[in-house]
Amino acid sequence: MSHQETMTRYLLQFIQGLLASHVTSAVISPGSRSTPLALLLHREPAITTYIAVDERSAGFFALGLSKAQQKPVVLLCTSGTAAANYYPAICEAQESQLPLIVLTTDRPHELRQVGAPQAMDQLNLFQGHVKLFVEMALPEASPTMLNYAYWQGLRTVQRAAQVPAGPVHLNFPLREPLLPDLTLGATPIAKQIFQGEQRLSRSELTSLADAWSNKRGVLIVGGSQTTHEALNFIQLAETLGWPILSDPLANILTCGSQSSTIIASGDLLIQELPTDMQPEIILQFGLLPLSKNLMLWLSQLEPSQTERYFIDESGQWQDQLKQAQTIIQGSQQALIADLVSKTNIMPTDPAWLASWKVYEKLVQDILATDWQKGRLTEAQASLLVHQKMAPNGQLFVANSMPIRYLDRYMTPRHTPYQLYGNRGINGIDGVVSTALGMTAANPNCQNVLLVGDLTLYHDMNGLLQGKKYQLPLTIVLLNNNGGGIFSFLSQNQLEKQDFEPLFGTPLDLDFALVAQLYEGNHHLVKSLPQLSELLESPTEGLRILEVQTQRQDNVQELQALSRKIRRQFEAQDEA
Amino acid sequence: MSHQETMTRYLLQFIQGLLASHVTSAVISPGSRSTPLALLLHREPAITTYIAVDERSAGFFALGLSKAQQKPVVLLCTSGTAAANYYPAICEAQESQLPLIVLTTDRPHELRQVGAPQAMDQLNLFQGHVKLFVEMALPEASPTMLNYAYWQGLRTVQRAAQVPAGPVHLNFPLREPLLPDLTLGATPIAKQIFQGEQRLSRSELTSLADAWSNKRGVLIVGGSQTTHEALNFIQLAETLGWPILSDPLANILTCGSQSSTIIASGDLLIQELPTDMQPEIILQFGLLPLSKNLMLWLSQLEPSQTERYFIDESGQWQDQLKQAQTIIQGSQQALIADLVSKTNIMPTDPAWLASWKVYEKLVQDILATDWQKGRLTEAQASLLVHQKMAPNGQLFVANSMPIRYLDRYMTPRHTPYQLYGNRGINGIDGVVSTALGMTAANPNCQNVLLVGDLTLYHDMNGLLQGKKYQLPLTIVLLNNNGGGIFSFLSQNQLEKQDFEPLFGTPLDLDFALVAQLYEGNHHLVKSLPQLSELLESPTEGLRILEVQTQRQDNVQELQALSRKIRRQFEAQDEA
């Protein structure tokens, strides 16, 4: 058998394994060594391929596809630094538990460590940041090795998707010539996989139901959840009569429920609560929500008065405060379903939730007065995006300030949309590409990205995919010309000659030109009604709605708001 | 002692260590965890700091500084994916043997592996791609630990600079609050370092001189060399009467020498040489030059007729063809100096070099006819850049096609300039930033980047540094709208529907807008005289001189040229 036929049959069998594991998307960066895999993936009708020149953006684009499709996505690149550019997306995929199948191609063994061009050590390239690394064998076409190639395709995707999901890396040594035989086809192999779920026993469930019934508890929901999952958390909160405090990405506020259990203003009210509001139970699902105020409140609760339960679905012990007395390892959704259907769990006195709602209303009334002024602030623009999202749309929210605005100001809506973000490591990198990957996964709904200027700049290259694939994404840009978050932190105390170059970092970029470069539209938004109108109008491709603000204004607004809330709470407690 | 004072004294002492190792530049990316190190580096008058928002570009900017300053350069970023963005530059630094001091800041131990925000495992983050990884101790201010901090600063820079030079990584766990005490100063500590050099003994030198004297040899020079080093290689070639074939980055053709030993057209003539031109000795310094024709010629030489010597300065056995019979481990420059000054090395018959010059002239005459047509091709634009470089200027040449044009068409000049490239792994990433780092190191000479459109796009973010620091860089852009190199490779046989999306990858970007975005000038060059004039005119900041070409034209030109050369050589051999 010729070199070309051997190589082609081996790689086709590997791709059959990917298909058997339901891979449907691949993001390919051009290169020479990767030629046979690129061509065979591109020619496979069951796989949609996207081509991306910048591998860093390609990695995050795949991450966005994986997020919105809830499926493993393949990445492919050539040898050398190309692969190193995937590293940020791989780290984020690991921490946010998303399955990426990273395929790198490499020189064969005889051309390694000899200074051959475009070659470097690719073994274990991503260190502990992938779940699994496989150095593939050189192509062979014996029945054993064709079955091996198929088995690696099948099982590595399955391994990537297992809880906790994450990236896997396969390195393919390939010899020249690299052109495959495009007339050949693969041999089908049949395998079935049954996958169990981690559930508690009936007696464990009953003991938890007994411990939680008739107690004043608080439900904390962190991590990324779908709107469907969010509804189940709300059902549990309603069953228990408990308030629910959550991370924005838990989608509690965007799942279309207006349940009275939802506390929208947790970040603003939690530190002002009187001490008699200390709960008897804290039931935390997943990571801590992003609110620092909530984290501080939780860390200061008197341990003798509050029992803490931590649902550790991933089994990774990510109990940041390390104060949980009971750790429950198992599926979050299965636990909720089992508690509601298999136990006699009972709600607490409705007065408990009612008192939370009193404080919630105080904050909401203050905010309503602020919003009436109708000023185009970062906070109000962010809130408007939330309010204007079309039903079943997708909003990607950037890190740093945008997600904090949503956390602070969102209130429940009566129609759902899905909120996404990169909260594995909360980087400002790759956000544009992740949002475009999300858009590519579901191009027929409304797709919006809420983002600051530094974050947009960091992944500006990602916009090329928007142009190339005509992806309908509306970017709401909060442009405060620099790193807005540092004005909220202690760095703000520094003198201007230290603060501005190191933390303010103004870019002075004209984003109208950025839109033009990538063939998008640009609107400089001057008022809230204008923003509202633009958000309601349809878009066929890329669109940047730019809101220009001053960094220091945002800080002053929050300080004024916090003072007002404190005064109101003090007045309430005295009354 | 307060937390703030302890942290500040510890970090100041570390920075003292860097200073003692002659660090003078640091490239800092903004972030919170890195605040104390960023402020203390920024405040240190002996260190020039550059601030770069995109860590990937920052990494390559530091690489460019290190290349042109021939000094270790510090990189600093915050925790999380920020550090992962350095990976491509770190891999390139390792393979091109440049000293980078990578400082990452991290959560303290109690906030690791608990799902804390912006945290991931940073230990051994860059795996085998750094020479050394150090997890620093938490700040302490005992005399022992202040000496430890100083010692780590001093020795890690020294380790990075030792042959083979390369990147080192230090990870600093830091607790909040993060603001340092800017009123404190460091305590000086005195240490001296004597560093030896790897040299051969007198008897070893004599045996080599005896083996090489009066033999028909060829000197092969690969790797990156300074123009000063290049002159020494030429001196050796003249001493032996041998032709010298080299990589463009060896700077043999740009060092200002017009020695008759220099063979400029090696790539074009080597495969056409008659068999009686087989040398008795091949003496190879460093990596193989980039010419594939030269590599094939070397690999096909009859072993019984040619003795091969490989000077392995880095000790890494990077003898790609694995055919060297003698491996010499030691300093290249010391070996040359010792051979010339301490031995009685003798030249071969001048007829040997004269016959090489006959073939060289044949090629040069054909090229002269081609150049007379005065067409604005990629080849001729590249040659013009070489010819027009101001004395003692700096030219950075991108990978893929630009460096191949220089390799094929450059001829010796009578004034020197320094040529740089990223030939560790030959990536298309980070090239703009490396060229800007080179410019920042020596802003007062002429600085030029010769680059294709994909490579410019891949690191477009890097242009921000050009705008921010008003770096005077002229970018000569060979825009063939896609991946030009693939038209020269076997992929060119593919049908258009496979070739264009996977290999052609047109960007369809308007580079006039790119220039405008980064406040540079843009000129669409229409003729060689116009390009010549623009290259001669001074620039104060960023400038893009765009040459638009067709990918297929380049291939046809090279094919036509190769046919002409073959015919001429055949006629010569018959004559």
Give keywords.
575 residues; Rossmann fold; alpha/beta; 41% helix; homodimer; globular; 17 strands; six-stranded parallel β-sheet
Q: In a few lines, what is going on in this structure?
A:
The structure is a homodimer of 575-residue chains. The first copy, chain A, has helices spanning 3-20, 35-43, 55-69, 81-84, 87-95, 143-161, 202-212, 227-240, 266-269, 292-300, 332-342, 350-372, 378-388, 401-409, 431-441, 453-458, 463-468, 496-504, 511-517, 528-536, 551-574, and strands at residues 25-28, 48-51, 73-77, 100-106, 132-135, 168-173, 217-221, 244-246, 281-285, 307-311, 326-328, 394-397, 418-420, 447-452, 474-479, 521-524, 543-548. The first copy, chain A, is an alpha/beta fold.
General description of the model:
The structure is a homodimer of 575-residue chains. With 575 residues, chain A is α/β, with parallel strands linked by helices. Chain A folds into 3 domains: 3-173, Rossmann fold (3-Layer(aba) Sandwich), CATH 3.40.50.970; 202-351, Rossmann fold (3-Layer(aba) Sandwich); 373-561, Rossmann fold, CATH 3.40.50.970. Helix content of chain A is 41%, strand content 14%. Chain A has a 6-stranded parallel beta sheet with strand order 2-1-3-4-6-5, sandwiched between helices. In chain A, α8 (227-240) links the parallel β7 and β8. In chain A, α13 (378-388) packs across α14 (401-409). The longest helix of chain A is centred in the last third of the chain and has 24 residues, at 551-574. Chain A is globular, with a radius of gyration of 26 Å. The mean pLDDT of chain A is 97. Chains A and B meet through α2, α4, α5, α16 and α18 of A and α2, α4, α5, α16 and α18 of B. Chains A, B: Homodimer. Chains A, B: Residues 14-124 form the Thiamine pyrophosphate enzyme N-terminal TPP-binding domain. Chains A, B: Pathway: Quinol/quinone metabolism; menaquinone biosynthesis; Quinol/quinone metabolism; 1,4-dihydroxy-2-naphthoate biosynthesis; 1,4-dihydroxy-2-naphthoate from chorismate: step 2/7. Chains A, B: Pfam families: TPP_enzyme_C, TPP_enzyme_M_2, TPP_enzyme_N.
